[in-house]
Amino acid sequence: MAGYIFLIMLCWSLMSVSTQQSQATWRYPTSAQKPRILILGAGMAGITAAKALHDKGYDNFIILEGSNRVGGRIKEVMIGGITVEAGAGWIHPDPQNLIQSLADRVNLSYVPLDSDDHVVRDGNGNDVTLEFDTRYNTSFDPAFKFLNSYAKEANAKGKPDFTVRSALSMGGWQPKSHVDDVIEVFNIDGDYPYPPEVNSGLNAFFGAYSGAKGFSTTEDLTVIDKRGFSQMVRGLRAEFLPDGDQRLRMNEVVTDIENKDGGISVRTRDNVTYSADYVIVTFSIGVLQHDEVRFSPTLPLWKREAINQFQQGHLMHIYLKFAETFWDDNEFILYASERRNYYNMWQNVDKNFPGSNILQVLVLGDEVIRLERMDDRAILNEVISTLSTMYRGRSISPVIAYSIPRWNSDPLFRGAFSNWPSGYTLDTFNGLIAPVGKIYFAGDYGDPFHYGTIQASYISALRVVDNIDKCVRGLDSCEAPYQPKYEARGCTYHGAQNYNARAKEDDGSCIILKCPISSSGSVYYENYTYTILLLIALSIMF
Ligand SMILES: *[C@@H]1O[C@H](CO)[C@@H](O)[C@H](O)[C@H]1NC(C)=O
Ligand SMILES: *[C@@H]1O[C@H](CO)[C@@H](O)[C@H](O)[C@H]1NC(C)=O
Ligand SMILES: *[C@@H]1O[C@H](CO)[C@@H](O)[C@H](O)[C@H]1NC(C)=O
Ligand SMILES: CC(=O)N[C@H]1CO[C@H](CO)[C@@H](O)[C@@H]1O
């Protein structure tokens, strides 16, 4: 209890000290004793955090956004008069309706995705859909179901992680052909976007595979709103932050975050310094991995491990507008290429925007890195030559407009969405989402059941604001640093030579030189009977 009260006092005193020290040229709206909160990034996590702060009565915040718009990786582009999504474009329904309900609040238009509506073509231009469907039904689908139940069981039993590949193999799926490869890419890489040897099998139960926890089993929804999907974020912003409000500052690229006694100081590219009592970092995992922002002091090892061992996935939506359509009418056109993950997945935009003559190819994973290093001309050449293979004998009409976003090359984003690799533990994940002092972290990686989606940005932003609120009100030990489990294990016996004050769980490593004699020591007599017997044996010997 005393410790608790101490922490409460510590919290308040640190806060009031830093408030008095504020000497900047810019202004928070309130100069009073309210905590100053800086939000870095105006994507889904940043705007959700600001709204949640506002709802709890904390209006003394500033949002710094590196680009000139709100929405982050939810970003539309115009092509031939049609609005298409260059970043997040689908809503994954979840049982709580978290994102769909926000989309509905701004009357966003979306349509259900129909993945059954697909055609598969091979390198000779032949329609191999029947082979695809047969292999899917007889081999992939049973293995996928096995993966799900195996993951559930492995979680329940506390088994170590395994790859999605290994569980699919145990379930009887071993890809044998180009058609098999495209089945995998469509069903696994398309969601993650990494191949099955990379993805966590254990977490398949938590993540996007799961109908049980994170997401509904119904099909995704494709956003087709002419205002763009980011209208959802702008709409959320408009609910609490009026147009032109100075608390939302555009083109402020953060370069340095310094954690000092009594406050945090954040510097931008233009050498403007903002001080704050709390900072909410909403940069992507990719930005954190690329050291686009310097932390001083350097983030602790457990945090850097957690950040760098998680993955930033890559997805490139290439949109092409042709003079006229020449492709199949289906929603999805899959290409069983000679090389796995070579322009496998196409979505027919004309289906949702008839007459638009737009076709999209979804490039996944490492292929995105390869393409981002090529110029547009070279990419278009590959794409057109792929289409000529898929539609051998048909004439390919000229491309009259296109869009090639490059998320990985952009220092504000460094990739598309996050992924949970095999071997990454929940303990490490807890470090990923833990604060470092009063620097908090939220984003599309921020929830173990929804990582890689807008849901995770939303959920983690609410969690962070909740934690800050508890810290401000002294209800939580806001200064207690995160401790990885491996650090929590050690010698917990005070009398031992190698007593570890940070250890919470005894690992049996205590080195005790003399027999414990105090009343509390007698407890350790049981634990270290072996050590003591050894000591007795040694003393007899010498
Ligand atoms: C959404 O549509 C409803 C019904 O047409 C309307 O009442 C509401 O004002 C609209 N909301 C927005 C944000 O456009
Ligand atoms: C595959 O299964 C689906 C759903 O049961 C069925 O509609 C379809 O006809 C099957 N296709 C083949 C080729 O077996
Ligand atoms: C910011 O400060 C650095 C070092 O003090 C200086 O080299 C740089 O020119 C400054 N940049 C701007 C935009 O003022
Ligand atoms: C520190 C530690 O592990 N103590 C354990 C020693 O053994 C007794 C009895 O088995 C446990 O109750 C203690 O927790």
**Number of extended strands:** 24
Backbone CA Rg:
27 Å
Strand content: 15-25%
Low-confidence stretches: 1-25, 519-523
Task: Tell me about the largest β-sheet.
Answer: 6 strands, mixed
What is the number of helical segments per DSSP (H or I, 4+ residues)?
16
Distance between the termini: 49 Å
The outline comes out as globular
Bound molecules: 2-acetamido-2-deoxy-beta-D-glucopyranose
* Order of the strands making up the biggest sheet: 7-17-18-19-16-20
* Mean pLDDT score: 88
How helical, in percent, are the residues? 25-40%
Q: Which structural class is indicated by helix and strand composition?
A: alpha/beta
Oligomer: single chain
GO molecular function, one term: primary methylamine oxidase activity
Keywords: FAD, Flavoprotein, Oxidoreductase, Signal
Pfam families: Amino_oxidase
Cofactor: FAD
Q: What would you note in describing this structure?
A:
Residues 44-468 form the Amine oxidase domain. A 6-stranded mixed beta sheet has the order 7-17-18-19-16-20, with helices on both faces. It has 542 residues and is α/β, with parallel strands linked by helices. It contains 16 helices and 24 strands. Strand 11 and strand 12 (273-276) form a beta hairpin. The model is unreliable at 1-25 and 519-523 (pLDDT under 50). The longest helix is centred in the first third of the chain and has 29 residues, at 129-157. The chain is globular. The chain is 34% helix and 18% strand. Residues 106-107 line the site of one 2-acetamido-2-deoxy-beta-D-glucopyranose (NAG).
